[in-house]
Amino acid sequence: MALFEIVPNLSEGRDLTTIDAAVRAAEAAGARVLHRTSDATHHRSVLTIAGDARAVLDAGVAIAQVALERIDLRTHRGVHPRIGALDVLPFVPLRDASMDDAVRLAHEAGRRIWERVRIPSFYYGEAARRPERARLAHVRKGEFEGLVARANDPAWQPDVGDVARHERAGAIAIGARALLVAFNVELATGDLGVARAIARQLREGTGGLRTVRALGFALDAQRVQVSLNVTSYEAVPLYRLVELIRALASAHGVRVLRGELIGCLPRAAVEASARYYLGVAETPSLS
Amino acid sequence: MALFEIVPNLSEGRDLTTIDAAVRAAEAAGARVLHRTSDATHHRSVLTIAGDARAVLDAGVAIAQVALERIDLRTHRGVHPRIGALDVLPFVPLRDASMDDAVRLAHEAGRRIWERVRIPSFYYGEAARRPERARLAHVRKGEFEGLVARANDPAWQPDVGDVARHERAGAIAIGARALLVAFNVELATGDLGVARAIARQLREGTGGLRTVRALGFALDAQRVQVSLNVTSYEAVPLYRLVELIRALASAHGVRVLRGELIGCLPRAAVEASARYYLGVAETPSLS
Prior knowledge:
Two copies of one chain form a homodimer. Chain A is of the alpha+beta class. Chain A contains eight helices and 13 strands.
């Protein structure tokens, strides 16, 4: 049976009862919640959910409804860019599933969410219907607050839904994409410029590593964060990224405090890092 | 169903057709061969085999027969100490199995091997019947060549079998023990003294890390090896061992060339090392 992953990003990282409700909604739809993480500074939570086509589709729609009922973007302030209460909903093909299957599910999710709760969606990644929307960063440009200003611009009409945004819940970026590693690194400095400089050096678009997207965020007076997404975790193994960040941070005289994985890591990526650091060619494992 | 692991160590690391035959014998007994590794300098091979009680018992007996038929210890020269053609045969309790079960299997294997091929055995580890035999190093003292000299010493009679050794195949150390991580590290020096000094610093008995056993071996003019066994891989994680070896080697001005795992690693040990080096609190993994 074809298996899929969805990774709903919700614009709520403080009231965890909302995330509990989203988890329950996913489970009631027959999907399995593999991981959850919430961050108060980002004011955002990320769920990693797996299941068959029907389960992840039902879970995605149910979570959009939870987001609508419990999150009001008009008063939402966090460091992470967002356009919606349910901000991003990617569909990822896992075992026995193709990218085409994931694209079909993404489009179907957009239609069902519009019919049910009247939140419009933009399709991104492999599900994009306009080439410029393939990049999630493009879709999120201007954020929730910018959606209204562009309401009459034909280039900014949602792919599904005939309003610029839902008043409280904004819009959703629904996509299809390959498995991705999301990884944050905290640096021991209050200087956001350092995080931004390192993010720029890591980012593919500005001479960094292949398929790496990176942003710098301020956390508090003592800490900043480099937030990373890597699609080609096989071509760009996590240890290379971590060692490069350590070197770049050290050039700024800044210490790396800790790393943090957002969601799940393919087991192969865990093993590749263990092999690198232990200096072994293989890590045959038991159980 | 109770699952066990056996880790037969055979005194043959050059003629791989012998190891092929041992693998086939294990599979014919209904066991699963998870890993195999052979080393020409040690002149030794290690198989990691899993199965239910009956399968691992039958596999152990069948491999003793293969060793008897194909290995002649009278002409065997390698850097690793050994007393037999099948040198060591530990039984390890895995899922749903107790150490008592593993001890019973070890004793039963000794009896069946003696009945079938007339190779005597010493019981070691948890299967030891004399306290001094709990330590494998004690059982292997004097090696194959020493077995005859001690034939009339009551302290050195095998636990099963009424001869000091089989003429060609020697004796077998059959044991029961907890899961163990076996790990070799190669150093870029021809000076065996460096490997031995580092082994001594790592070994529990001489002030090193808990449950660590370590030996130094000469490989060639450019390389020596520190060979390690760790039983408490949870208390003594692999990364601590690797980082300590790097520091000790660097104090000798010697570079670490590579590591090598002999047999399987519990998945928890792979993940613990990845977490340490990536600086993350958890590595939630997919598939």
